[in-house]
Design goal:
By secondary structure, this protein is an alpha+beta fold. The chain has 7 helices and 4 strands; from the N terminus they run βαβαββααααα. Strands 2-1-3-4 form a 4-stranded mixed beta sheet, covered by helices on one side. The chain starts with a strand and ends in a 7-residue tail after the last helix. The relative contact order is 0.14.
Length: 202
């Protein structure tokens, strides 16, 4: 088994934090996305989408997409549970994980893709759309601040993959000058707690 990783990208970090919380160590292969190694034929032969991370199992099975990789490890090693326990809790964690992904992490990453020099000449960029996404991300940070007024973590009273996704999104937002605002006390409290976990350094 080996994990194709990229130290500079946000989605691989989601998997690294997840594995660190589980105490699972997996051999890694670093993919330099700056040099577009993920767009070269050997990588595309394994993952035609070209994304990172990618998990290659011992039998040659390829699992791409960060949450799918996390699901594999959750099923392989259920404790500590990071994707819920029982039907109701699993559904609620998935709901909040999906919201953190679609409503916060994706707009932040989309801002970067559409406005940063890193992607100039690599993909079509629409700076105006990037500005819309940036505004949306700020509004959603206001929203999640209000949600965190009555609970410790995103999906309830336990740390889950939803917290990982939000943490990675917020940290990646720095590149595009998207950040928690001074008046967002609940979000600040949450961020201070989750970013101090050892896994956050993954």
């Amino acid at each position: 088994m080996k994990l194709y990783d990229s130290a500079m990208a946000p989605n691989p970090r989601r998997v690294r934090i997840f594995l660190a919380e589980k105490g699972i160590e997996v051999p890694t292969v670093q993919i330099d996305i700056g040099k577009a190694e993920n767009r070269e034929a050997p990588y595309l032969a394994k993952n035609p989408m070209g994304g990172v991370p990618m998990l290659e199992l011992d039998d040659g099975t390829i699992i791409a997409e960060s949450v799918a990789i996390c699901r594999y490890f959750e099923q392989s090693q259920p404790e500590p549970a990071l994707m819920g326990v029982g039907a109701q809790d699993c559904a609620l964690v998935e709901m909040w994980q999906r919201r953190m992904e679609l409503e916060i992490a994706s707009p932040i990453m989309g801002t970067f893709r559409n406005t940063h020099d890193f992607f100039k000449g690599r993909i079509p960029q629409v700076p105006e759309y990037g500005a819309v996404l940036k505004e949306s991300a700020f509004k959603r940070l206001e929203w999640i601040d209000s949600e965190l007024a009555d609970r410790q973590f995103v999906a309830g009273d336990r740390y889950t993959i939803a917290d990982i996704t939000l943490l990675v999104g917020i940290d990646f937002g720095r590149v595009s000058k998207i950040a928690i605002q001074p008046d967002q006390k609940n979000l600040t409290r949450w961020y201070d707690e989750v970013s101090s976990r050892p896994s956050a350094k993954a």
